[in-house]
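Changelog note: in this version the structure field was regenerated for every chain. One regenerated record is shown below for reference.
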Amino acid sequence: MAGVNTEWLTTERLTTDEFRFRKTFEHAPIGMALIAPDGRWLDTNRALSELLGYSEAELLATTFQALTHPDDVATDVANVHRLLRGEVPSYQREKRYLHKQGQTIWTSVQVSLARDAHGTPAHLIAHIQDITARKLAEATLRESEEQFRTLSAAAPLGIFLNAANGECTYTNARWQSITGLTLEQSLGQGWINAVHPDDRPRVAETWRTYVDSGQEFVCEFRMRRPSGEVRWVQSHATERRGDDGRRIGYVGTTEDITERKRAEAWRSRLIATTQDAVIAIDRQSRMVLFNPAAEKIFGYTLPEVQGQRLQVLMPDPYAREHDEYVERYERTGEPRAIGRVRIVFARRKNGEMFPMELSVTEVGVGTEDDIRYAAFIRDVSERVRIQEQLLERERLAAIGTTAAKLVHEIGNPLNGMSIATQLLERRLGKLTEDEPIQMSVRALRDQTSRLANLLDEFRSLSRRQQFTFRPTKLPEVIREVMSAEFGLYTERGIAVEQVFAPDLPSVNVDQDKLKQVMLNLCKNAIEAMPNGGTLTIRVHHSHEHVYMEIADTGTGIPDGVNVFEPFMTTKKEGTGLGLPIVRQLVDAHGGTLTYRSELGKGTTFVVTLPSRFQGETRGE
């Protein structure tokens, strides 16, 4: 090679170590060179020629200073002098070389000094590696990070950068405002101090899961500012990866959601305490929300219905048509129930159907597991019952008005007819023994008597009755009535059972009117058991009511029959006014009259009286 002592390069005179060095020098993947103390190139390898664009001969004809970027020459010369003076054994730095084509090449150089046997500096050994791509990447990264920091400084969200080990490297002004920590306080592991102590284990576990899985980090938790103020935040984080695909850190946002959480807490309290049922479903009509009022109204607990389809609360045809309605609305956007208030029927856990006021709203368009629709439900059973009672009273009042006129207009002629029929029956009995004639007269007498009884019931229905309320023990009244009727029950083959709960409270009732109620209900029970049976009278109570049940084992009441409808009767004989009159008397006591029945098994009438009803002597 030009400029090199050929004897020194003769292979035969090289020691084994020198030979190995020579082989390494020639085939090294990075640039290598031997440089004289004055900067002349003494020897260069192929990799260096390729790096700088010069041939080996061109390199040996110049100096390393001539190919170094002018801004880096002074530092290089200073470092060489330090080596020559023995101040350092070697040095390493990043510097720029000038390529033959004019572009700048960034390199990482490591230079050491070789001395001869006398300790005199012989030459420099330089290792030169191309780092241009890395420097460009770093410059690009610095530029992008500078842009990132400029943008994040004014961002409305808190922004943070974390290193691969999770330590914080940057936070913007908004993040510092949310947490109350300065940039210096948040760096490293300092950010953890802002997490509320009660939430730190959960946040740490969520972060570990995120790092292990590589999924997006999303977490809501509390941050406690140095002043003690607690703020709710929602934090998102994603990975930052280098050009080689390695994870180099994380970038994330932190949003202050304190007001939203307060609104959610307020909404939750409102939903939990409202008297209306609130039920929310997802896209598959599975129940997601079922508030305490819904539990009370429907009889289910939240665990029983959560994840169940809404149809469990619906009778047909609503249950059968629900999916079709939802599908049509999702497809066309045409509402039939959404945004409106409707009265429909629902089904309780015990199977009971009841009327409810229903309002449905569309909540969102989220994923399959999100809330899609919410229903606000009000049980209007009591309101409907009161409306029905008002209508019933209006009908009874109309009937009463008509009855009063009938009693007045028909009563006197009917009384005369009854007297005349009795006289005629006695005279015919003396004048003739013609049985057909006598049977006709007896039938006329019976029909007249029946009309008279009907007028008496009309009179009871229409007249303004007087009530005298006083504290009464129901068992005493019941025993008195049953004792008087005992012979009749025995004659009809009817067993009587009386069941009274202990510690029954007194109720304010008109005893005579209550006896009339009992006699009428017991009479109906006897007539429902023509072949005998069991009559059970049971009295029990709750916190606010006392219940008197009169049950028979008779034929039962057919479905679709309204036994409280005036003139409606299931008996061969009867006016159909007995139960309306009984109901009127119970209403006057501030109570209710209901029944349950099963064909072939019997009927139970329930008289419900308020235990705190403050009655007084008054007319009805």
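Spot check on this record: The two ends are 135 Å apart (CA to CA). The chain is about 40% helix and 25% strand.
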